DNA sequence: TTGCTTGTCTAGCGATGCTAGGATTCGAGT
DNA sequence: ACTCGAATCCTAGCATCGCTAGACAAGCAA
């Protein structure tokens, strides 16, 4: 038994290595640079090893996305719990979200732009994704306003943040006025 | 001279054919299916002909994007000019925008998701892109509210719509409540 | 020691974006 | 009318991609 356990442990370590390396490579040179060959070389194994852990590149992206979702939830909760009052909490949430997107563009892409083969907004949605949404809901629900479903409000607020994040990073919006846009968004959307 | 003119005309026709075919193929089977080989086969020319018109696949995407930007501007203006009152205009704009995104997913991707090699939010931004933004600004500027820069407001509103469009199409948001989200967004963001 | 499972690698397939270089066509000049 | 040269187009190929088959080696069980 002990032998099998050791092997399983080593396999798990290698799997984490694959995900971490893919993420690192993606953040350094973009997801296009994350080829199976380069990834295999970096972990010092041959290509087929990747396929003994994941069905393919898509699943690797999905694994990075899950990792990122958990981190984002932590970042959002840390920011909101350190803020006083509903408005400050919402501002902190928005900043934390956009900050995360800016600092981890590859992870953000894995989460919301690329196809990681994950189910969203469904029952079989992986727990980290649900929890990341829950982290948003916790602070946004209290400023949804009367008669507005908290979940719906959170979706709209989230979509707005997502729009700002993606358009800014894709060069469609200039980063200079980013702070002003956040202020405007919070002032208008949140009911205090 | 006449001969050269005829050739130039024929070249222009073929260039439009390339763009139209790429768009058609992308709408039918997604941009991944738009390979240079398939595209060349559909227009009944060899691959290198594509490269005598465009630097590469990226520029073809850019051409589709420009075409789409012009159409989107038309669609938005048609919707807003048929609506009475500021609020109705904004609602009409939002619906027209999301409708365009839903009905022309490949074109929308070319515009805002993919890299078409175009400059955005700069001086050398192609005219169709500027004009599409202007079309949004025309109706959104009047509901920006006092002391809020119309351009900034338009950017925020646009980003929100973009977020809704992309998250919905990527399966991150369920399409059922789409109408409610638009209502909420307009009610909160627009100052009437 | 022998046999078998498990793990890993080499080699290769079809497809991708893109390009070099040869062939063909066709108008211009005598 | 005929030749020459330039423009036009295609065949063939390169490097790279994601992914996989099949050979090989390592290591445990009998």
User: Order of SSEs of chain A, N→C?
Assistant: HHHHHHHHH
Radius of gyration of chain A: 19 Å
Number of structurally distinct domains of chain A:
2
Number of helices of chain A: 9
Taken as a percent bin, the fraction of beta residues of chain A is under 5%
Notes on the protein architecture:
Chain A is mainly alpha-helical and 192 residues long. Chain A has two domains: 1-53, Arc Repressor Mutant, subunit A, CATH 1.10.10; 59-189, Tetracycline Repressor, domain 2 (Orthogonal Bundle). Helix content of chain A is 72%, strand content 0%. The first copy, chain A, is built from nine helices and no strands. Chain A has helices at residues 2-29, 36-42, 47-53, 57-81, 86-103, 105-112, 127-140, 150-169, 178-189. In chain A, helix 1 (2-29) packs across helix 4 (57-81) and helix 5 runs parallel beside helix 8. The longest helix of chain A has 28 residues, at 2-29. The mean pLDDT of chain A is 96. At the A-B interface, helix 8 and helix 9 of A face helix 8 and helix 9 of B. Chain A binds a DNA duplex (30 and 30 nucleotides) through helix 3.
Task: Give a short summary of the structure.
The structure is a homodimer of 192-residue chains. By secondary structure, the first copy, chain A, is mostly helical.
